Amino acid sequence: MKYSPDSKGYFAGQHAYGYLSIESWIDACSSIKNGTATPSDFVTHLPTIHDTLYTTAILEAGRKSLDSGGMPIEIVL
Questions:
Q1: pLDDT tens, position by position, 10-40
Q2: What is the DSSP string of 6-65?
């Protein structure tokens, strides 16, 4: 993310990952709402719940481990 202005003093963060991913999501939502696309059209372009399942499980296990004083946590999917 670029928080500093460009050489002309303008905001220069709009080409960073966060802005581009939000823009892609908004474009997908608009296409779905307008009937020109379906959610399945974006499976290879935007993350889905299936893509984030393992990461979410790992983060949850880490939180539970920290809450229990560092005890190992079994991840069951």
A1: 877 766 667 778 888 999 999 999 999 999 9
A2: -TTS----TTSHHHHHHHHHHHHHHHHHHTS--GGGGTTTS--HHHHHHHHHHHHHHHHH
Amino acid at the residue 8: K
Tokens at 49, concatenated: 């719940």
Q: Let me know whether 42 and 53 are in one domain.
A: no
- pLDDT for 68: 94
> With a threshold of 0.70, does the pTM exceed it?
no
Specify whether 59 is located in the same domain as 23. no
